[in-house]
Each structure stands twice: as C-alpha cells, then as structure tokens.
Design goal:
single chain, globular, disordered N terminus, disordered C terminus
Amino acid sequence: MSTLENNVNDMEEVQDKNKEVQDKNKEVQTMPLTAKNIGTDYSYKHQLVWPNAIGFLTIHLLGLWGLKVLLTGGVGIKTILWTFFVMYIAAEGITTGAHRYFTHRTFKATPLCRAILLTLQTLAGQNSMFVWCRDHRLHHRYSDTDGDPHNCKRGFFFCHIGWLMHKKHPLVLELGRKIDMSDMQADWMVMFQKKYYLYLYFSLSVFIPTLIPVRYFGEHWLDSLLVCYFFRYVFSLNGTWLVNSAAHLYGTRPYDQNLQPVESWFVSFMTLGEGWHNYHHAFPWDYKAAELSTLINHSATFIQFLEKIGLAYDLKTASPEVVANRIIRTGDGSHYKLGNEEARAAVTAWGPLHPLNPTYTTTLKPPDATLKPDGLTIFHEDDVLKTNESNTSKTIDAARNAKHQIKLLSS
C-alpha cells in the first residue's frame, strides 16, 4: 500500500473518530444533569447571543425615543389613547389568553373566544402562542432551577431580560422536550398561528397599530411607529418580564414559603393582576391567579365578563378550605388573615414601607428551590411528572459512561 493510501486511511480514521466524539457530545448534552434533584448550578456560565443582545438594546432605545415623542407632544391625544388601548387589549391577550387559558387551562373557551385571545396575543408580539405556553409550562414545572428558562436564582437581570440574550441551559432544552403540548398541537388555531406567526405579527402588532394614527389622526408615520409600536412594545414587554423577575424576588410568601415566587402588589398593578405569584404557583389552575378577584386583578374580572357573555365557562378555582389549609401548612405567616404579626412585620423596602413599593419584600430567607425530577404542578394539584427514579439513574449512568468514552476517543 502506498504512502498516499496510508495517509488517506489515517485521515478517514481521524474523521470517523471526530464524528464519533461529536455524536457522543450531542448525546451527553441531551441527557439530564442530575439524578434526583434539579437546582441551580452556579458554576455554569450562560453563553451570550450577541444578535439578541444588540436587538433588544436597539428596541429599547427606539422605545425610549417613542416615550420622548409622547411626552413632548409629538403626537396628539387620540394617538396616545389609541396606544394605551392597544397596549391594554394586547396585555389581556397575554394575561387571560396565553397565561390563564392556553397555558394553565383555568377555564374553558368557545372557538370565538379562543380566536379573540389568539389575535390579542399576536398583537402583543411575545412569540407564538405555542412557544409562549411551552416555555411557561416549563417555568412552572421546574420553577427557579436550571430547568426554568428564566431562573431567578441567577439574578434580576437574567430572569427579567437576560435569559432572552443567552443560549438556553442544557436542562431547559432537555426538560422542555418532556413538556406535554398535545393539547396545543391538537388546536388548529394555535398551529395556524405558529406556522404563520411572523406574517401575523407584522400585520397585527406593527402595521395596523401604526397605520391607524397615520390614516385617521394625521400623524407622521415615524412618530406613529415610535409611539404606537416601539414605546408600546417595550413597555408591554417589561411589564410581562416583571412577573418573571420582581414577582419572584420582592414580596412575601403567605401561601407557600417553599416556593420562590412572591406576592407583589406593584407587579399586579403593572400587569392587570399577575403579581399574586406565590398564590399562582401554589394553585396554578385557579383562573383568578390570586386568592381574591377584587384586589388589583383586572384579568380575573375580564374572565368573569367573558363568562357572563357566554364566551368562557367552567372557571376553575381553589376552594377556601384548600387555600386555608395550604396557608396554615406551608405559608410564611404573612397572610393578611391567617398569618401572624411577627411574620407580617418581617418586611423591608427602599423608601416607603408599603406593598405598592416595588422593593417591598420579606426579610425571611428564600427557599433553595431544589426540585425532584417530577417537578411542580401546571394544571391541577396532582399534576406532576411520574418519573421512574431507576430509569433516571440509568440515564445518568449512561451520561457518565458517554463522557468516559469521549475522553478515551479524544486521547
């Protein structure tokens, strides 16, 4: 055999070896990282995605420009009212539509109601309904761990916006594949919106809101774009993100001190009632997403309105007895009725010590947020993944063996 043939054979062996190493790496990356518990690995460093970071920076700068135009009289009162009207109905598309209906199925909806909620969610521009709900179900299943797309244990910035600027943690990718989305896949409206999302988004969220003030209110197209799209979009995004950040970090835990999410008056005020987050994570199937429907909870009132006009029905809620039992059993003692004075007084804030202060928070130690692979509930009280611990251990052993093989192949 010639030297050339030997070199070719050697190169082929090296290529095969490299391919085998790559395959093993992919295999390891798709395996769970822990056998029994899922928490936060603080040694893991998320990789920044520069196009995303630059994109969000650009959108925020344009949003601030739009705010300047609005505050300095660059647009008329009709355009301002139009902007906040669009912002409101789009917010209901997220709070009532994406969150309380499509993600948690807290009530049933007629086809017309589903179509309306899908349209409003598209108007909000926060990704397709399918992707939004998948990420939020994963967030509830593995809240505030490395399996949570916006894990608050990595700090305010990360869980507010940073998670959208970084590559997903391997556990998010792996556990996300286990989230049951069969109900969404069976809904032709959801899948239609997913398939044509970009076209629908630019039409409903960008073009129409910008066109109305230009066509009917006499606005310049640039001013209308800056105020009716960029300002509105940035304001709405940050409102939604506050639920992921502030409502997990600053507040009290009257329903379950073992859950990281908190009760935040400020976030509820900013998001039509989404800030009663300790209750919501304790009882995610409750359409109110709160113990009370009357305290800063407009989305609960909106759902009740939908029920009254026949668009929503079978509203789910946790019974007072179940809620009271949970408060007594796992609450931090800060509940307004069933708590104690010592826990209620264990709060601090920068500035006025009032629940509407964004920094109002408990001084009690937050939970470690370490979960079993079964995870937490999404739809009802007994809704957890039924994992087989022995199978999980076998998977981890396989991962370790794969890593060992990679070392051997690389040597």
